[in-house]
């Protein structure tokens, strides 16, 4: 089985790469790269003491659950590292060697548009969304679920890729029982999602799942990146979660 993965370059993304490489015949990875020190180095998030403090806790939880993962089995992996945000500048012909797979997965990449998303939709690509759709869609969804006092809606959604953000038909949700801290809780749901999708691909049960259309009337919050700011983080730390 050949798999193509669109992802990013944090250790949790490397962990998923390693999981998929263990059983796939060939793993094609388009890895968008950004800073691994958010809050300390400006990138997707600004440089500030408040962001630095928040993401230090995120990185501690990530290290706890993903143990400083680095890509291991390079003999089975075709890796294309690109700058985060450059994906939509890549033509199908440029990516052609990475687009000859049986299964396509998206997790942690930038928002995919144009001819690439059209191609991926035709290939029935699966997206791993960190948030429980249709209740939470957009950016930083598990943060907002906790912020809104909805810890039962912390988790991930495995759904079909669509042109709309996190709006594709749902295959299933992956959750976690780990609740030792808000950061451990949210990060453990990531690990639950990874292991569940790998098991369902390995036994091919993923092919038997019937996608269920999202009910937009159930949406609680459609969050934008600009809303995740210093004010929101300060309010988050003051809450008793």
Describe the structure.
The protein is α/β, with parallel strands linked by helices and 241 residues long. The chain contains 6 helices and 9 strands, in the order βαβαββαββαββαβα. The protein has helices at residues 11-21, 49-66, 114-122, 141-147, 182-202, 230-238; strands at 2-7, 26-33, 77-83, 103-106, 126-129, 136-138, 156-160, 170-174, 221-223. The protein has a 7-stranded mixed β-sheet with strand order 3-2-1-4-5-7-8. A two-stranded parallel sheet has the order 6-9. Helix 1 runs parallel beside helix 5 (182-202) and helix 2 (49-66) packs across helix 5 (182-202). The longest helix is centred in the C-terminal third of the chain and has 21 residues, at 182-202. The N and C termini lie far apart (43 Å). The model has no long low-confidence stretch (mean pLDDT 95).
Short synopsis of the structure:
This protein has 241 residues and is an alpha/beta fold.
Measured between the Cα atoms of the first and last residue, the distance is 43 Å
pLDDT averaged over residues: 95
Q: What amount of the residues lies in strands?
A: 15-25%
Detail the poorly predicted runs.
none
What is the global morphology?
globular
Largest sheet, strands/sense/barrel: 7 strands, mixed
H and E string: EHEHEEHEEHEEHEH
Strand ordering within the main sheet: 3-2-1-4-5-7-8
Which value, in Å, is the CA radius of gyration? Answer: 17 Å
Count of individual helical segments: 6
**DSSP helix fraction:** 25-40%
Number of strands: 9
Structural class: alpha/beta
Descriptive terms for the model:
alpha/beta; two-stranded parallel sheet; 241 residues; single chain
């Amino acid at each position: 089985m050949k798999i193509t993965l669109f992802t990013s370059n944090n250790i949790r993304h490397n962990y998923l790469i390693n999981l998929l490489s263990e059983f796939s015949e060939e793993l094609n990875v388009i890895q968008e790269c950004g800073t691994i020190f958010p809050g300390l180095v400006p990138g997707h998030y600004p440089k500030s003491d408040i962001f630095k403090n928040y993401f230090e806790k995120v990185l501690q939880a990530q290290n706890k659950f993903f143990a400083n993962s680095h890509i291991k089995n390079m003999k089975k992996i075709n890796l294309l590292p690109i700058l985060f945000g450059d994906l939509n500048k890549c033509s199908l012909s440029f990516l052609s060697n990475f687009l000859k797979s049986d299964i396509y997965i998206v997790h942690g990449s930038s928002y995919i548009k144009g001819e690439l998303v059209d191609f991926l939709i035709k290939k029935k690509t699966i997206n791993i969304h960190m948030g429980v759709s249709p209740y939470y869609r957009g950016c930083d969804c598990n943060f907002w679920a906790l912020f809104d006092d909805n810890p039962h809606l912390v988790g991930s959604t495995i759904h079909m890729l669509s042109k709309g953000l996190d709006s594709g038909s749902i295959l299933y949700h992956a959750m976690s029982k780990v609740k030792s801290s808000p950061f451990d809780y949210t990060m453990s749901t990531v690990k639950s999602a990874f292991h569940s999708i790998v098991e369902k691909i390995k036994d091919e049960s993923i092919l038997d799942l019937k996608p269920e259309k999202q009910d937009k009337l159930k949406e609680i919050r459609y969050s934008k990146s600009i809303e995740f700011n210093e004010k929101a983080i300060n309010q988050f730390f003051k809450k008793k979660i």
